[in-house]
TrEMBL record:
Residues 379-642 form the WD repeat-containing protein 75 second beta-propeller domain. Residues 1-16 have a biased composition (Basic and acidic residues). This is WD repeat-containing protein 75 second beta-propeller domain-containing protein. The keyword NADP does not apply. Residues 17-27 have a biased composition (Basic residues). The lineage of its organism: Eukaryota, Metazoa, Chordata, Tunicata, Appendicularia. InterPro entries: Beta-prop_WDR75_2nd (IPR057644), Quinoprotein_ADH-like_sf (IPR011047), WD40/YVTN_repeat-like_dom_sf (IPR015943), WD40_rpt (IPR001680), WDR75 (IPR053826). WD repeats lie at residues 83-125. It comes from Oikopleura dioica. Residues 1-29 are annotated as: Disordered. Pfam families: Beta-prop_WDR75_1st, Beta-prop_WDR75_2nd.
Length: 840
């Protein structure tokens, strides 16, 4: 081989490598283009408000929802803001002991954070552990923490840095290691006494331990003498050395004489116990109790949906107990803040009570107590809201934009009776379909031996749905599916193997056609895009009918498999509307109805449950594959089978609604509404969690400034703005943001000093007036003596005019300062008087 041959061979090899690299790059680009987006399921709405005890700060109610804190107005119950910043589940929130309108939160991300509620700002982040802060309580100088089950303390940082690190001092190791809830919280299991010298731990369900922080001594109190269930909650009296323990049997036991000798105990039994409590949205429904803020009453609520307030020391008076019955659901949390009481209910709502009267209700996505959402998700175009099950016998219209329930519909209008915290007499709504201003629903009444299904037809008029008519026993047995074709026609299918076409003729709904095949129970059906064909599925086959008269056309048999179990059927959309997708227990089949051929079989290994949903007009499908420990969510094209989006979640998916390829709403077990979010969207959300002021300067107003603005002027209407602007020092004090207010003693001293300064300045008013009068008299004499000198006369007049202007400005300013001082003193006296009345 010559040198030329070697060179030529080398060139050929180089060219081949270049072409191979080029082909590889093209292939990689194509794969990247066709690769499905990996998304995450994040909380969209219907936030669970039951994770921990809600908190009242000023005019705001704060509730934990996942890794954020939602803020609501006390007076309107409207959602105000979301405090975001934690990167893991929030475990506890409490009011700040010294800063008004501020709260402290703990989280499994290992941080304790301080927030300004009225400004929606993150003020400080304290890193105390790498993870696992299960609870927080605060005194004036210290923070008391539960970190990974151990009790620890830190002092409030004295520096002004927004982000600080603190080394907690572990006082009691593994104090509550076995009592951490699935949300990571221990709010029920520990409590501080009023002086923060002793702390009680509900170490296990059979005894509690009291730790003396000063002497480091322990005292153990056993519950073994009580055969009334497990201890679930304890609460220290706000003024005395007594502890109330709540048991799962419905009993509250108050322990006193805790310092020495044998402790005394008094038992109160108000609520029905539920040792076999069901799970609702991850929260165990038992009951909750607490002392009132003044310690006079015990407040509790139970599974029978009754709130009880009793003067626990005055047991001889027959009127010492008050009841608030017929709440919407079982009581999960009770918290009292003086005149206001917060009740968290199992249907995911918070009631705001003022002196035993329900003033407002804060509601997320209403949770069904039995966690059954058989009707799935539908869309109401009239209310622009998601339609889903609510309380048994009711539907809720939940606005995604407003993030609240905008309407509710009592479908069955039945009297609901509680039995062991479940609804025993209400029918359940199992099917819903909406087209424009027409809706059809199916309700199911379970009896001893049979099921009775009722079809209701609704019309939307004005701003509400009206029950136009109802059909009892439309099918023999249960109704499996129902679908509107237009405003005056729908089709239903039942376990009796019949398809029925219903039409409105002369104001009456009648059955015009009936179809079926061998009386095999029909599980589901769908209508083609042009409404010419109806396809139904039974357990083992798919049957085709003509829509016009429901005449039998053909059958489709799946391949022979060990256990064929068909459950749903959908026509594809668009140019591939002739394709039919049939779901089975672990995947789906795809048929071409033109050639009557099976063109695709998709199966998922180890799939325990396969569910599928489709967009109403687009060829977009969403599939849920439940595996052993997780659920896969996939978005794909029906005819192409191309995977567009994939996501993994630990939650079990109940239903989904497809708006478009990029907007899919998912309903998970426990009543959570989720959405698909990309990694970029999550990063953008995280970047927005940096500490920042979220309110304009003009809106930063404390209660003091608010009182000043709302109080009527003392003398004239025109004085109002001058009162605010007359003194810079006074204005700065009265309009300080809440999170910058000093302690009450410091604030009072500064305010008084400022007002006294104003009074000293105003005292000079008379001196200036006297000086002005003397100057005027002297001028008059000078002018008379030099009357024949015109130049001197003009200069004197000019000087007199200038001095008068200056003095008038000074007098006006001093007048405003004097009025402000008087007004400020009166205002300050009013504030002090109200505080004294509250304390007394």
């Amino acid at each position: 081989m010559t040198v030329e041959d070697v060179k030529q061979d080398s060139k050929m090899q180089t060219e081949l490598k270049r072409k191979k690299t080029k082909r590889s790059k093209k292939k990689t680009a194509a794969e990247r283009k066709n690769k499905a987006k990996t998304c995450f399921l994040t909380e969209l709405g219907g936030h669970c408000l039951l994770q921990s005890i809600p908190c009242l700060v000023g005019d705001y109610v704060c509730a934990i929802t996942g890794d954020s804190i939602r803020v609501y107005s006390v007076y309107t119950s409207d959602f105000v803001a979301s405090l975001t910043g934690h990167t893991d589940t929030v475990t506890s929130i409490i009011p700040h002991p010294t800063q008004p309108l501020s709260i402290i939160s703990s989280s499994l991300d290992g941080t304790v954070r301080i927030w300004s509620v009225d400004d929606f700002a993150l003020l400080r982040t304290i890193q105390v552990a790498e993870n696992g802060v299960n609870g927080v309580k605060a005194t004036e100088n210290d923070l008391h923490l539960i970190i990974n089950g151990s009790y620890a303390q830190i002092s409030f940082p004295q520096n002004s840095e927004r982000v600080t690190k603190a080394q907690p001092k572990v006082v009691v190791e593994d104090a509550l290691i076995d009592r951490i809830s699935e949300f990571g919280s221990v709010d029920r299991q520990w409590s501080l006494n009023s002086k923060a010298k002793r702390i009680a731990f509900l170490t296990c369900t059979k005894f509690m331990k009291i730790y003396n922080i000063s002497t480091k001594n322990w005292r153990k109190i056993s519950f073994s003498c009580f055969k009334d269930g497990e201890a679930d909650k304890l609460d220290y009296h706000p003024r005395e050395e007594s502890i109330m323990v709540s048991f799962s049997s419905g009993k509250n036991v108050v322990y006193s004489n805790l310092l020495e000798g044998k402790p005394a105990s008094t038992t109160y039994h108000w609520h029905q116990g539920r040792d076999d409590a069901a799970e609702q949205g991850g929260v165990k429904i038992t009951f909750d109790a607490c002392y009132s803020a003044d310690g006079v009453n015990i407040m509790s609520g139970g599974s029978e949906a009754v709130f009880v307030v009793e003067n626990w020391k005055n047991t001889t008076d027959s009127n010492n107990r008050s009841f608030l019955p017929r709440l919407n659901a079982a009581v999960v949390w009770v918290a009292n803040y003086g005149d206001w009481t917060l009740l968290s209910l199992a249907d995911n709502s918070i009631l705001l009570l003022n002196f035993m009267s329900v003033k407002h209700s804060i509601s997320g996505f209403t949770k069904n107590v039995m966690d059954e959402y058989e009707a799935g998700l539908s869309w109401d175009p009239n209310n622009q809201a998601i339609v889903a099950n609510s309380r048994p016998g009711m539907l809720q219209m939940y606005s995604l934009e407003k993030n609240k329930e905008v309407s509710k519909l009592d479908v069955t209008r039945e009297n609901i009776v509680f039995e062991s915290a479940s609804y025993s007499s209400a029918s359940s709504i199992v099917l819903v379909h909406v087209i424009e201003k027409r809706m059809v629903t199916v309700e199911r009444k379970a009896m001893k031996s049979i099921q009775q299904d009722t079809i209701r037809i609704w019309t939307h008029e004005g701003d509400r749905w009206i029950d136009e008519t109802h059909i009892v026993r439309g099918h023999v047995g249960s109704i499996q599916h129902i679908q509107l074709l237009n405003q005056k026609c729908f089709i239903s299918a039942g376990s009796d193997g019949k398809l029925k076409k219903w039409e409105e003729i002369d104001g009456r709904w009648i059955t015009t056609h009936i179809g079926g095949y061998r009386n095999e129970p029909i599980r589901h059906f769908d209508v083609s895009e042009d409404q010419s064909i109806v396809a139904s599925v039974s357990k083992s086959k798919c049957v085709i009918y003509a829509t016009s008269n429901l005449a039998f056309t053909d059958t489709l048999l799946p391949p022979a498999e060990n256990s064929v179990n068909l459950n749903r059927v959908f026509f594809c959309r668009g140019e591939n509307s002739h394709n039919l997708l049939v779901a089975k227990k672990d995947g789906y089949y795809l048929w071409d109805l033109i050639t009557c051929s099976l063109i695709r079989i998709v199966s998922t290994e180890n799939c325990q449950m396969f569910k599928i949903w489709r967009h109403s007009s687009l060829d977009i499908f969403v599939a849920s594959e439940k595996l052993k420990n997780e659920t896969n969510l996939k978005v794909f094209g029906g005819s192409s089978g191309k995977l567009k989006i994939s996501a993994i979640t630990k939650k079990e998916i109940i239903s989904a609604h497809v708006f478009d390829e990029n907007k899919i709403i998912v309903l998970a077990k426990g009543g959570s509404l989720l959405k698909l979010s990309t990694k970029e969207e999550l990063e953008e959300l995280k970047s927005k969690c940096e500490p920042e002021m979220r309110v304009k300067e003009t809106k930063k107003m404390t209660p003091v400034g608010g009182m000043l603005k709302e109080t009527a002027p003392i003398e004239q209407v025109q004085v109002a703005e001058k009162l605010i602007l007359s003194s810079d020092k006074l204005r700065e004090l009265l309009y300080l943001p809440a999170y910058l207010l000093p302690k009450a003693t410091d604030f009072s001293r500064k305010l008084l000093n400022t007002l006294l300064e104003a009074n000293e300045l105003s005292a000079r008013k008379n001196e200036l007036k006297t000086g002005k009068n003397e100057a005027e008299e002297e001028m008059e004499v000078d002018i008379k003596e030099e009357s024949d000198d015109e130049q001197v006369n003009l200069q004197a007049e000019k000087k007199e005019s200038e001095m008068a202007k200056v003095n008038m400005k000074k007098l006006e300013k001093l007048k405003n300062l004097q009025v402000t001082a008087k007004f400020g003193l009166r205002l300050f006296s009013k504030i002090l008087f109200s505080r004294i009345v509250k304390i007394n």
